[in-house]
Amino acid sequence: MMLPQVMLALTVILGLASAGRGTVYYQDGAKGSCGQANTDDAIIAAISNSWMHFESPSPYCGRQIEVKNVGSDDQVGGAGKTLTVTVADTCPSCGPDDVDLSIGAWNSLTGNAEYGTFDAQW
């Protein structure tokens, strides 16, 4: 079994993809687990504890990942759009390969769709 930190490094370096759900969250001016407060329009994301290793701050803080919207059963638009986001927080309620997006990132990837979920590769 490959360790999550090795998987993330391979994803970034080799372009391998993790597949999960794309969701949306409010930053609400609070500091994320990476120690910085961001506005809701910042292009950031939170990833699961399986990647962040229950550390605060995690070694993944500040890393950039490319997220692709590959479609949705929730009628969320934007299929085919990609966006590079900065890891800025932990999503404790996310599945292992889900990516929780700031409102700014969500709007960019979905064409300002109503909140729901989409299939994400990153």
TrEMBL record:
The keyword Transmembrane does not apply. Residues 1-19 form the signal peptide. InterPro entries: Expansin_CellWall, RlpA-like_sf. Keywords: Signal. CDD domains: DPBB_RlpA_EXP_N-like. The keyword Transferase does not apply. PANTHER family: PTHR31836, SRCR DOMAIN-CONTAINING PROTEIN-RELATED. This is RlpA-like protein double-psi beta-barrel domain-containing protein. It comes from Elaphomyces granulatus. The lineage of its organism: Eukaryota, Fungi, Dikarya, Ascomycota, Pezizomycotina.
